[in-house]
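Kindly review both lines to help learners:
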Amino acid sequence: MTISRSFSTPTFHNPARRKWTAMATAALLTAGVAVSTVAYAQEDKKTFALVQINQQALFFNQMNEGAQQAADAAGAELVIFNANNDSAAQNSAVETYITEGVDGIIVVAIDVNGIMPAVEQADAAGIPVVAVDAILPDEGPQKAQVGVDNAQAGADMAAYVNEYAASNGGLQLGVVGALNSFIQNVRKDGFLDALDNVEVVSTVDGQNVQDIALSAAENLMTANPTMNAIYATGEPALLGAIAAVESQGRQDDVTVFGWDLTAQAVDGIDAGYVEAVVQQSPAGMGAAAVDALIALTAGNDVETQIDVPITIVTKDNVDDFRTTFK
């Protein structure tokens, strides 16, 4: 389920707030920012905003679902902004939500440094910010960071790959990354730093876009014909790598490792050429972020680091996840 509603003008009991919301929405439109969801709560409800990266990736849609379920359970209103991979649009959205006076903001940042002026503006306005997945600078005023330990998870995957390589006569491995993504660079570096006796032939940039990752992975295999493994740092990179392996008919001699299950990844595990995938709990992240805002707006403290565990999915445990992708 993609949580994205078209704009409709709600009815408010307070005329001043009605004017205020209309002005803020106009500001978004004037700035060229697409409004994916602007629907505000009755005055006795908390309103939280989730500023999302995109709504193409299943990962982000699952995060939205978890956040929505937690908001519904708490009787809060959740509005979701789809930045369509545009970091400037994320900044504009945060600034507009500040003007509208939402009670809390969740940020899944594209540019972790570029978003900080907007995060600081929210804090100055008394609006708590919770970061999810992408790690904001430690010195920032955000109240909590929700996500996995990406460097450790990368190292955990490297330990799996090391054991696999030792059992299969070694590996020549290429990386399909997203060099514009801070968090995916952390996953890449944590993985590469923990590899042992694995030859890394090259790293290519999929830019966090599936079609670009597909082309990058195809070029990677063409340039390195003896390469027999790929590590993909996120969902678009993994989807691109899977499609590239299939398009070149390399299922029998290229083994894929990566992040974030999809139906295609499950099919690849069943077929035997996708060996292992780091699976996060995006719905759990979304829910944890909303729960943190609920606590913060009630005057309670929360942990500054809220960890959500990962699972390395292989043929041995894929059945536990299969129904999610049917």
